[in-house]
Design brief:
Aminopeptidase, single chain, globular, 14 strands
Length: 405
């Protein structure tokens, strides 16, 4: 993963874990927004984009949880209830978060639309849990009435206003800025959630956080992956921040992976997908390697392998997945997803594009937190606002895009 050096933290001692906190919710700025029939907007043309590794890993990990819910329907709910419950971690809503329209816990999945915030973090050793950057921020809009799903990705470099902290920041810093003062996972989720709600006008019903730490463990549990390496991978500055060097976040090593058929364990698979230097075909080669590994992983994640390793897979993902979806809701989404056709899923990224799909512009801006210019994406509210109002059922005149505070 690419490093983000826009925020520097002092070293921490004991790692913080999810805790309690927060206050009762209210919605002082959302009282006037009603979900009402909207004036039809032109359909959004689908553009095929290559997704970052995190997006694809998160989808696979969450698919594993949903499959577990589906298995509970067949093999007995209580068989997996205790394991699934280890990932369930409700985070109370802050005083300034909208709460009037949030779907209550343990609700029926069908008959309503859901907004689920996915957060993905790659702890490369330079940050300590829970004070992490979120390399992925995605809102999954699930419309069970129309059997449709929209995956709305917000680029990590989006230059937006972060409430409570104040000022403009890259959106991937919102979670870190929230978690850092009290070393609290809950505060990180709360501020990241509030940032999306305030800046994009989207009420978040549920969240899911996924760390990449369990990714290699899952591969080891499944017996490794068989990969046909198209050409040698030589990286003289590969970050040596895992395994034996986990305590040295600034260590580097020379990475070499020979061409031809290779059987990779979890750590080797991570090296294969993370290396971003000296690829013979440039950065597109990294994307192709990521797709190759994830395709191999999907082939390993079949019904037989999941059933035979279910408890160990849950153990692998402990500490790497948290969500406030309840057991009932996980089972409900499993049933909903079972009958969802592939063409019912729409993918949109709020980044630079063409015409009415140009949702942002690349620019260098001065970031006072590091005292230097940073490369960012400036959101384009002229195109983002009508898109959000259409997808999330807001009136066409609602000012949903407020990225400047």
């Amino acid at each position: 993963m690419d490093d983000d050096k826009s925020v520097k933290l002092p070293p921490r001692g004991k790692k913080g874990w999810p805790g309690n906190g927060g206050a009762n919710s209210r919605a002082p700025f959302a009282d006037g927004v009603e979900r009402m029939p909207t004036i039809p907007f032109p359909p959004v043309r689908k553009v095929k984009r290559s997704w970052p590794l995190f997006v694809r890993v998160m989808i696979i990990v969450l698919l594993l949880l949903v499959l577990a819910g589906a298995f509970s329907l067949v093999y007995g709910y209580y068989y997996v209830q205790s394991s699934v419950s280890t990932f369930i971690h409700p985070v109370s809503r802050g005083q300034d978060e909208p709460g009037n329209d949030v779907i209550p816990s343990d609700s029926n999945v069908t008959g309503q639309s859901w907004n689920i915030l996915l957060l993905g973090s790659d702890n490369d050793g330079k940050y300590n849990f829970p004070a992490l950057l979120t390399q992925v921020m995605m809102v999954v809009h699930v419309d069970t009435n129309n059997n449709a799903v929209t995956l709305l990705s917000i680029p990590r470099d989006s230059w937006v206003y972060v409430p409570e902290v104040g000022g403009m920041h890259k959106i991937d810093q919102a979670f870190l800025l929230g978690a850092s003062p009290r070393n609290s996972f809950d505060d990180g989720v709360r501020l990241a959630r509030m940032t999306v709600e305030r800046d994009y006008g989207i009420t978040i019903d549920r969240y899911a956080w996924v760390g990449l730490g369990g990714f290699s463990k899952v591969i080891d549990t499944l017996g490794g992956l068989d990969i046909d390496v198209a050409h040698p991978i030589v990286d003289d500055t590969y970050p040596d921040d895992t395994g034996k060097s986990a305590n040295d976040p600034y260590a580097y090593k020379r990475l070499y992976i020979g061409p031809g058929p290779q059987h990779l364990n979890g750590e080797e698979a991570l090296e294969y997908v993370r290396s971003r230097h000296a690829d013979l075909v440039g950065d597109i080669g990294r994307t192709q390697r990521q797709q190759q590994v994830l395709q191999a992983l999907k082939q390993k994640l079949n019904v037989g392998s999941i059933l035979s390793n279910l408890q160990q897979l849950f153990n692998d993902l402990k500490g790497s997945v948290y969500t406030d979806l309840s057991e009932q809701e996980i089972v409900g989404f499993a049933g909903f997803g079972h009958g969802l056709p592939a063409d019912a899923i729409q993918r949109i990224t709020l980044g630079p594009g063409q015409g009415d799909q140009n949702y942002g512009d690349y620019r260098n801006v001065y970031d006072p937190s590091v005292g230097s210019d940073q490369s960012v994406v400036i959101p384009n509210c002229n195109t983002i606002q009508p898109l959000i109002n259409r997808i999330f059922g807001l009136a066409f005149f609602v000012q949903s895009c407020n990225v400047n505070g």
